[in-house]
């Protein structure tokens, strides 16, 4: 099968009905970039910049950050990369930044983390913004903010980037040709103000790992809760379907970048509720491209619409049966 996926590397993932699906990969290390050409992914839909912060015992110097981001862009060549600003705090504790706070955080996943932390530690976000702007000088910069819960957080984070951009321009430095700002949708509250986000963001990427834990109030890292929710549950699928309906008619790219998108039946369901962009673990790119090529979008959309109105007793079994009948 590996050989079959290798053959698919340069094959573009068009559905049976001829729609191009964007299949990107998630990354977080310089070394991950070697899998970009090997996997045949369309780009990096989520680059988790916090890895550099997590493996360091001190706050990474701006020059080190710039070097990493530049290397990543060089390795990606013509393919796009979406850099997510640091998502530290919560379960990704960094001793040099938030130990005192983390001790006080009774619910770290709901606590002082990600953009919440970055907006307060403005020096940290400023230095990351500058590093990203410098690394992408003369190219396109795609930057994404994690854990946005309300539109103002997106505005404030963007303003930090714009401030750094002005600073660089003032010094006659080369800046990115294009900057696209986007956000993660992983806090359910943000979905309730989608109409405000579609006006602001160039792209929105649904982080189903966190979104699921928040929707079900079930810690994603607790193995005792692992059986308590299913990505194919009607609750999640209906939620995701509403999100995808919310971007119809707007110039915003909607993607899923959680682990869900890398699984066969889950990806099938996502296609059926309007998602056309996935960013997934590199190993899943081949299998998902293969799946995409067998799917007729109209057929799965009709089926999912029906199933979301009247959920079958077991959505997983229903999808499995549907796929098997079509030799998908
Ligand atoms: C997510 O929450 O789905 C996500 C992609 O981000 P992370 O797994 O890094 O929290
Ligand atoms: Mg997340």
UniProtKB/TrEMBL annotation:
Superkingdom in the source lineage: Bacteria
Family per record: Belongs to the PEP-utilizing enzyme family.
Coiled-coil segments on the chain, per record: none
Residue range from the parent sequence: 426 to 753 of 756
Subcellular compartments: Cytoplasm
Official protein name in the record: phosphoenolpyruvate--protein phosphotransferase
Gene name of the encoded protein: ptsP
């Amino acid at each position: 099968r590996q050989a079959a996926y290798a053959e698919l590397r340069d094959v573009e993932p068009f559905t049976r009905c001829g729609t191009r699906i964007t299949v990107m990969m998630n990354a977080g290390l310089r070394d991950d970039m070697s899998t970009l050409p090997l996997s045949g992914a369309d780009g990096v839909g989520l680059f988790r910049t916090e890895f550099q912060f997590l493996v360091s015992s001190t706050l990474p110097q701006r020059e080190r950050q710039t070097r990493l981001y530049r290397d990543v862009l060089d390795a990606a060549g013509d393919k796009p990369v979406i850099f997510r600003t640091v998502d530290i705090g919560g379960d990704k504790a960094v001793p040099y930044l938030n130990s005192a706070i983390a001790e006080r955080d009774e619910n770290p996943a709901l606590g002082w983390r990600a953009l919440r932390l970055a907006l307060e530690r403005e020096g940290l976000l400023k230095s990351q913004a500058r590093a990203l702007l410098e690394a992408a000088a003369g190219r396109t910069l795609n930057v994404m903010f994690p854990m946005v819960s309300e539109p103002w957080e997106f505005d404030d984070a963007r303003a930090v980037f714009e401030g750094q951009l002005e600073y660089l321009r003032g010094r006659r430095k080369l800046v990115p040709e294009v900057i696209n700002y986007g956000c993660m949708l992983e806090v359910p509250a943000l979905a309730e103000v989608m109409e405000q986000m579609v006006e602001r963001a160039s792209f929105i990427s649904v982080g189903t790992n966190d979104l699921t834990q928040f929707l079900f109030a079930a810690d994603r890292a607790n193995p005792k809760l692992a059986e308590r929710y299913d990505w194919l549950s009607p609750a999640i699928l209906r939620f995701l379907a509403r999100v995808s309906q919310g971007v119809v008619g707007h110039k915003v790219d909607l993607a899923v970048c959680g682990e869900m998108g890398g699984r066969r039946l889950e990806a099938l369901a996502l296609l059926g509720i309007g998602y056309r962009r996935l960013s997934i673990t590199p190993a899943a790119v081949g299998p998902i491209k293969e799946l995409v090529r067998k799917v007729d979008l109209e057929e799965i959309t009709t089926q999912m619409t029906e199933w979301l109105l009247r959920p079958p007793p077991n959505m997983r079994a229903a999808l499995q049966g549907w796929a098997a009948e079509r030799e998908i």
